[in-house]
Amino acid sequence: MFKVISSSVCKKSLTRFSIVAQAHTAAATPAAAHGHHAVTFKQADVYPRVGNREIVGFGRNGEPTYFDAPDCPCPAVRWREETPEIKALREKAKGDWSNMTVAEKKALYRADFRSTLSEMTAPDGEWKFTVGALLAAIGASIWGYYFFVKAIYKSPKLESSSAEHQARMLERMIAEGVGRVEGVSSKWDYETGTWKKN
Amino acid sequence: MLSIIRGQVMKSVSLRTLAVRSYSSAKESDQDFDNRWESYFKRPTLDGWELRKGINDMQGFDNFPEPKIVVACLEACKRLNEPSLATRYLEALKWKAGKDANVIYPWLIQEIRPTLDKLKIATPEDLGFDKPELALKSVFEMKGPNDY
């Protein structure tokens, strides 16, 4: 009856939430009942998509995701996963920074962050796509209107919208005396059979 | 004599008024703001999470931080062994200066130069990050079809 969509993704998120829930319940209940004080769980189990990256901060909303934004320069995770080379650089950064070469500083920066702020704010030409899409939409609208006028709105006009029919209707309204106080018949002179002159 | 008494009375009255008013609408002076953030970054137990949160929050305020706050922040970066974060914050400050960056940013660098030299912090210019390094060139700077 129900289809299981993407079971591995579901399983991962379920694992994450059940582990977090376990951690909360374990923290709430007395430690003696469990026989241990600290609740330990692996980051990879709780945040499987972060991988080996270190969660270093709050980011914009507390979710451990990476993004580049000039108004929020410190994302919640580091950009690259930890490798032995990067770990060696971090050890070196614990000492005097004058011992680090420019290349090492740049490598460490690129391990922490994906792009510099000048790369973020560099023109990427996206305005051309936006203007092009806008013009395409306007063009499609004009051609669509033309198509509807020519192909769809071609039903025959009603007989009642012809000038002859309207003239007959006016004649009949005058004969029946429609609006004889202030309406159309009040402007008709029944004695002479013409329109009144003011 | 009279003026001294009056001065004391007025002082106590004005202080009381201030206290009553600040109960409903506390307004932090600029000096208090600067001191608060300087002491935030100077706290010895500050960790990397709080350092990043402080930088992000500072970046969201409608002001430009005083050099003494920036110095405190850079010293915190040094304390927590984060050289790339120090460079990143200087970049962020350059962006925050907006269209006046060519005036404000050199002034800031000049103000914090002793700290930069003392802690050997690399400015974005030192690392070549003032120009886009990995981004595509602007089409107006391309010299030909294969120059990108």
Automatic annotation (TrEMBL), chain A:
GO cellular component term, pick one: mitochondrial inner membrane
SUPFAM superfamilies: Mitochondrial cytochrome c oxidase subunit IV
Localisation per UniProt entry: Mitochondrion inner membrane
Lineage per the UniProt record: Eukaryota, Metazoa, Spiralia, Gnathifera, Rotifera
Protein's name in the database: Cytochrome c oxidase subunit 4
Main function: Component of the cytochrome c oxidase, the last enzyme in the mitochondrial electron transport chain which drives oxidative phosphorylation.
PANTHER family: CYTOCHROME C OXIDASE SUBUNIT 4, CYTOCHROME C OXIDASE SUBUNIT IV
Segments traversing the membrane: 127-148
InterPro entries in alphabetical order: Cyt_c_oxidase_su4, Cyt_c_oxidase_su4_fam, Cyt_c_oxidase_su4_sf
Membrane topology classification: Single-pass membrane protein
Pathway(s) where this gene product acts: Energy metabolism; oxidative phosphorylation
Biological process, per Gene Ontology: mitochondrial electron transport, cytochrome c to oxygen
Short name of any one Pfam family annotated for the protein: COX4
Family: Belongs to the cytochrome c oxidase IV family.
Keywords tagged on the record: Membrane, Mitochondrion, Mitochondrion inner membrane, Oxidoreductase, Transit peptide, Transmembrane, Transmembrane helix
Major site of localization recorded for this protein: mitochondrion
GO MF terms, alphabetically ordered: oxidoreductase activity
UniProt keyword Transit peptide present: yes
Subunit structure: Component of the cytochrome c oxidase (complex IV, CIV), a multisubunit enzyme composed of 14 subunits.
Species: Brachionus calyciflorus
From TrEMBL, chain B:
Domain of life: Eukaryota
Keyword Mitochondrion: yes
Pathway: Energy metabolism; oxidative phosphorylation
A GO biological-process term: mitochondrial electron transport, cytochrome c to oxygen
CDD domains: Cyt_c_Oxidase_Va
Keyword terms of this UniProt record: Heme, Iron, Membrane, Metal-binding, Mitochondrion, Mitochondrion inner membrane, Transit peptide
The keyword Lipid biosynthesis appears for this protein: no
SUPFAM superfamilies: Cytochrome c oxidase subunit E
Cellular component terms (Gene Ontology): mitochondrial inner membrane; respiratory chain complex IV
Family statement drawn from the similarity comment of this UniProt entry: Belongs to the cytochrome c oxidase subunit 5A family.
Protein name per the record: Cytochrome c oxidase subunit 5A, mitochondrial
